[in-house]
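Sample entry copied in:
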Amino acid sequence: MQNYALVENGKPFTQNGAEELLKTNSKLSEYELQLETAALRADFREYVATRFAMKDSQRNFLNNLDDQTVAHAATVCSIAMANRLPIFIEKPVSKRHDEIPPFKTLSIVSNLRTESANDGSSAASGYVTVVISYAE
């Protein structure tokens, strides 16, 4: 496992947990933030699993996501993080009382805009929303 600038495995995988992580990351130097961004982009699954407190069922869900979705999540979330933009988590409470809902999906909704000029300058704006949905 790589040694990243920030490894905290205690935040819930909720909007509050995401806000805590972004608040912690906002205090990082640019170099430390680059390390966090690189870690997220390199291995989205590992980054999420090591930054949030997750149940085994949540880790299994994360590990079973298809690689295309994971790559997309890694790209847009790392752009948002690198530019200190919001990342939201929308996760409704399951109405079922058992451990694993019958069908669960992850969607990545990006409202990012990036610009770059021929002088090497760049800018980004917007936000990313990670949506967890349950079929009831």
Q: What stands out?
A: The first strand starts at residue 11 and ends at 12. Residues 1-7 have pLDDT under 50 and may be disordered. Strands lie at 11-12, 52-53, 87-90, 103-110, 113-116, 122-125, 128-135. Helices lie at 15-26, 30-42, 44-51, 56-63, 67-82.
